Amino acid sequence: MSQFHMGVIKNYLVETFNEKIDLKDYEGKSEHDQTNAFLTRSVAAYTMMSLCDITAEEAGSSVTDGYGDNGIDGFYYNQKENLLLLVQSKWRNDGTGSVDRGEIQKFLQGVRDLIVPRFERFNEKINKRSTEIEQALRNANTNFMLVLSYTGQSDLSADVEQDIRSFLEELNDSSDFVTFKTLKQSNLYHMIAKGAQGDPIKVDVAISNWGSIEEPNKAYYGQVAASDIAQWWEEYYPRLFSPNIRMFLGDTDVNDNITNTLKNEPEKFWYYNNGITALCSTIKKKPLGGAKREYGIFEVEDLKIVNGAQTAGSIAKAARSNIENVEKAVVNIRFIQLKDSPEVFEREITRNTNTQNRIEKRDFVALDPEQERIKDELKLHGINYVYKSGEIAQSSEENFDIVEATVARACNQIDIDLAVQAKREIGKLWDDIEKAPYKKLFNASVNSIELWKQVQILRTVEEGLSEKEYTGRERLYAIHGNRFVANLVFRELYEIMAKDQSQILTEEQKDLIKDKTQNILQELTTIAEEKYPESMLASLFKNLSKCKEIHKEYVNRQTA
N or C terminus of the chain with fewer C-beta within 10 Å? Predict the structure, then answer.
């Protein structure tokens, strides 16, 4: 059967990627070598094409395999989804074995070098696209998906699995922004046999406490086991989702909360989560269970999730590390049947279920009377302060909103803790308006004009970080270390600014802030490079323990 699978895979790759894979570096070599190079590179291209939903031409041009690739055989950056996909591929003619430890360690080291970045360690194919990589590294919300794709039948060895786990623990020290996926022969065969957007998904699903609606369009609703959702994700991603919606975003405020609930309070998941909306061509109840509404088995044809990608992705993520707790959780779901419905109905459901208002954490800030006090006081001075969702700050220098106010207050603290939290997940600062950290930032003692001055200082720090032409890794420090730098600027200029009672920063004050900003950045870079030269900077400045270490060293050097 393995040879049959290999034949299917090979024929598909040849048909799909013929003349789309660069083999100039194999000119003059044997036909055997050229064929193996083509197939290895085609595996990488197919992986990117199927996981990122791109054309064969795009995937072929994204292959970087060759001398000096540093273990990375292909990469694709999806800017819209904030996802950088990195692939290592292996073609095995006999369809046996897996990937040895040396090969995977080379791949992992290549990823380390890429995120620093050390472009001098890579070939021309990767360096030609360094702008894309730098763009991904500058974006604090970028998620990295590492994929090992090979045509062997065997699973990875225990040593290789441990290397991968250690690598992920090393990089995901502040948030899970790096994931690892393995595709072996059976996975590739089934993906090719079904097609990335191929055969409709057909599942039998157990729904408890179910109900139904007959008109104007048939639908069933109820609760499903979270573990079933995780299984769908693992088996059918990415075609489980309608192409019209966003894919799983990865490490966001919302997704962190979903995952944490599943890990810590799975029995409460149903109460906290809004659930999932799925479309299908047909849904039919099977006789098992009779007419009782407590439990039923339903046959679902052409399943597609159109709302709840974040919920499904977070469930799958939690299940990989804590399946026991995920099995205790249930999810609200509704299946809407499209059979006999107008053509536009699917698009209308997809659009409307993804654009209805949802309550953000910042919406609860509107319940704090101190926010209205600050707004009213600032209005007397001609300054517009926006703290309610839906209100829009006018395009004027004398306008700011709750986000800027929160960041400024978080950075204007003696310790680095809240500045790091503002960088990592600002929503946590609004968790509970009745207690810290929110009450530490906003309370009756907050002077509205001082708050406005702090926002101006924060803006001037950002200007100081953007005005100078930084290059390479220093540029990444200026982007990802901005909250850290702002905290130190506030710390060092506190006494000077406290004495000044004016409402607007003077040009001399702005110049002082910018000079201080650039000096602090230089010293910060020196210290961080000494302590964490291999760090992914987008992750480093979200890691509280490491930031505390750097902060302490900086203060010690200034007071020595």
Answer: C
**pTM over cut 0.85:** no
What's the confidence (pLDDT) of residue 81?
Answer: 76
Backbone region of residue 287 per phi and psi (left: phi > 0; alpha: psi in -120 to 50; beta: other values) = alpha
Residue 272's pLDDT band (cuts 50, 70, 90): confident
Q: Residue for token digits 């369009």?
A: 217
Parallel/antiparallel/unpaired status of strands 399-401 and 384-386: parallel
CA dihedral 366, 174, 309, 235 (to 10 degrees): -160
Q: How far is CA 176 from CA 42, 187, 282, 447, 480, in A?
A: 29, 24, 37, 38, 17
Q: Where would I find the H helices in 278-415?
A: 309-321, 323-326, 344-353, 369-379, 402-411
- In sequence order, which ranges of 468-506 are alpha helices (DSSP H)? 472-480, 482-499
Given the structure tokens 């790759």, which residue do they identify? 13
pLDDT digits (tens, 9 = 90+) for 360-373: 677 788 889 999 99
CB 346 within 8 A of CB 233: no
Residue type, 471: T
What is the enclosing helix (H) or strand (E) of 223?
A: strand 219-225
- In the structure, what pLDDT confidence band is assigned to residue 459 with cuts at 50, 70 and 90? very high
